[in-house]
Specification:
The complex is a heterodimer of chains A (313) and B (248). Chain A is α/β, with parallel strands linked by helices. Chain A is 25% helix and 28% strand. In chain A, the strands form three sheets. Chain A has a seven-stranded parallel beta sheet with strand order 5-9-4-1-2-3-10, sandwiched between helices. Chain A has a five-stranded parallel beta sheet with strand order 13-12-14-15-16. The longest helix of chain A is centred in the N-terminal third of the chain and has 14 residues. Chain B has a single domain, classed as HUPs (Rossmann fold). Chain B is built from seven helices and 13 strands. Chain B has a nine-stranded mixed beta sheet, sandwiched between helices. Chain B has a two-stranded antiparallel sheet with strand order 2-3. In chain B, α2 packs across α5 and α3 crosses α4. The chains are: A alpha/beta (313), B alpha/beta (248). At the A-B interface, α3, α4, β5, β7 and β8 of A face α3, α4, β7, β8 and β9 of B. Chain B: Keywords: Electron transport, Transport. Chain B: Its cofactor is AMP. Chain B: InterPro entries: ET-Flavoprotein_bsu_CS, ETF_a/b_N, ETF_b, ETF_beta_N, Rossmann-like_a/b/a_fold.
């Protein structure tokens, strides 16, 4: 079996989601190649070549691939698919965007957001916002799979794969106009070891400053519930949940979040969950390892002080 | 411009799912069903574009059992002009849905198809992209803003790092994200009016699409459950516990 893994990157560095997708590919078994499609991706390709267990890195370097738009990715991937039995990409907004196009053109059903590999044709995936786990067996000749990165460990380094470059894709019907990316010095939400999220209880965007302080002391990422995003407290890409990001950090601290089904879908695989909420009947307490029933405007500054007392700054 | 809006009837988003004890699936007997929330946003978007004079006709299509007709009526009550109901009791995978929709697109010649980004039951997030691929059309997925610019659309997309704006040539596929708009409630007069709007009854056979599933469900099981932990009395106690756990 030959498996193609599509790398997640920002043209400068390879994202951890790629390493985790390689682990899923290893569980399926076979020769694993990585496709790095982008613009100016020499460093990314070099990083991909170091992942343990990778046979070959294929580089497609062209301006049309800079943002990995679906139509351009399709042009690069489809000619390669004769040589592969499976294609895997992380279940990020990039992978979710182009992978179903590949599946449709290969006339196969995509298996979305797998959280487990049972055998080379049988996979586990969450459905109904993670409230049920479906084990599905694919009868398709080629497998098109997106991988939930939080469900797999990152593959290690130490490999020395060869790197080859392929030809440019042709022109496509969509063009990139602009982007507004949230600037942050904090760790990336999906890869952070600690995540602190605020909900509607935060009351305003300014009030997020109190959890940001704690986040910075712990080196944590800041997330949010949908209601906090809808209210405009923080940008959309902070959203944790069924329709936002799925995280599984060592520690997840939910502040002023009631714990709707859709939010739990994005964080309930965290190792330790802490809830700070003044409503002791909030559903979040049913999944929290540690609950503090208190007004967050009092509790969060106290938490900050307690961390300072414990040696954090 | 003509707009086609595919919609799906799903378990209501507020209902707590129950997995059947024989692990054959989730229990959908006697539970509340509604229009998929993302599809409500698609319907709202199509109706707004028509109200803004950008669309001449809007069509809702749903593939599913008899009751999917109720979902189409809801769309008609929100302002969609007419419906197409492709009746089947089979569970239809995104690939087969995309194939049926492709045939409907070929019959109806819409300039734009607006779909929800994912259905909250199978959580696949595939159909729009698959339809775009089968038609050879460009796609604007996870849209939180849509603007018409001549023969193109400017689409703001919710991506992992923030917002990305792309320009796609019409005809095109757009899939909607939650923040695109706030769907309206259908008023009683509009619900009454919707009863007189036409719904075309079709079957998958009319489109010659093979619905045989490519994925067979081996089992559906409960996810690992978490039990409630302990309540702490103070922030200091919380920090002490987290240190004990070794997570800070």
């Amino acid at each position: 079996m030959a498996i193609l893994v599509v790398a997640e990157h920002d043209n400068e560095s390879l994202k951890d989601a790629t390493h985790k997708t390689v682990t899923a590919a290893k569980e399926i078994g076979g020769d694993i190649d990585i496709l790095v499609a982008g613009k100016g991706v020499k460093d990314v390709a070099a990083q991909a070549a170091k992942i343990d267990g990778v046979r070959k890195v294929i580089v497609a370097d062209h301006v049309s691939l800079k943002r990995q738009l679906a139509e351009a990715m399709q042009e690069v991937i489809m000619p390669l698919m004769d040589g592969y039995d499976a294609i895997l990409a992380p279940d990020t907004t990039t992978g979710k965007n182009f992978m179903p196009r590949i599946a449709a053109l290969l006339d196969v059903m995509q298996i979305s957001s797998i959280s487990g590999v049972e055998s080379p044709d049988t996979f586990v995936r969450p459905i109904y916002a993670g409230n049920a786990m479906a084990t599905v067996k694919s009868s398709d000749a080629k497998k098109v799979i997106t991988v939930r990165p939080t469900a797999f460990k990152a593959a290690g380094e130490g490999g020395s794969a060869s790197i080859e470059t392929i030809a440019d894709p042709g022109p496509v019907k969509s063009e990139f106009v602009s982007e507004e990316l949230s600037k942050s010095d904090r760790p990336e939400l999906t890869a952070a070891k600690i995540v602190i999220s605020g909900g509607r209880g935060m009351g305003s965007g300014e009030n997020f400053a109190i959890i940001e302080k704690v986040a910075d002391m712990l080196g944590a990422a800041v997330g949010a519930s949908r209601t906090a995003v809808d209210a405009g407290f923080v940008p959309n890409d902070y959203q944790v949940g069924q329709t936002g990001k799925v995280v599984a950090p060592e520690l997840y601290i939910a502040v002023g979040i009631s714990g709707a089904i859709q939010h739990l879908a994005g964080m309930k695989d965290s190792k330790v969950i802490v809830a700070i909420n003044k409503d002791e009947d909030a559903p979040i307490f049913q999944v929290a390892d540690y609950g503090l029933v208190a007004d967050l405007f009092k509790a969060v500054p106290e938490l900050e002080q307690a961390l300072r007392d414990a040696g954090y700054s | 411009m003509k707009i086609l809006v595919p919609i799906k009837r799903v378990l209501d988003f507020n209902v707590k799912v129950r997995v059947k004890s024989d692990e054959s699936g989730v229990d959908l007997a006697n539970v509340k069903m509604s229009m998929n929330p993302f599809d409500e946003i698609s319907v709202e978007q199509a109706v707004r574009m028509q109200e803004a004079g950008l669309a001449s006709e809007t069509i809702a299509v749903s593939i599913g059992p008899d009751k999917a007709q109720e979902t189409i009526r809801t769309a008609l009550a929100m302002g969609i002009d007419r419906g197409i109901h492709v009746k089947t009791d089979a569970e239809v995978e995104p690939l087969a849905v995309a194939k049926i929709l492709k045939k409907i697109v070929e019959d109806e010649n819409p300039d734009l198809v607006i779909l929800g980004k994912q259905a909250i039951d199978d959580d696949s997030n595939q159909t729009g992209q698959m339809l775009a691929a089968l038609l050879g059309w460009p796609q604007g997925t996870f849209a939180n803003a849509i603007e018409k610019d001549g023969d193109s659309l400017i689409v703001g997309r919710e991506v992992d790092g923030g917002i990305q704006t792309i320009k796609i040539a019409l005809p095109a596929i757009v899939t909607t994200d939650l923040r695109l708009n706030e769907p309206r409630y259908a008023s009683l007069p509009n619900i009454m009016k919707a009863k007189r709007k036409p719904i075309d009854a079709k079957s998958p056979d009319d489109y010659g699409v093979d619905l045989t599933p490519r994925l067979s469900t081996v089992k559906v099981s409960e996810p690992p459950t978490r039990s409630a932990g302990i309540k702490v009395e103070s922030a200091a106690e919380l920090v002490a516990k987290l240190k004990e756990e070794g997570v800070i």
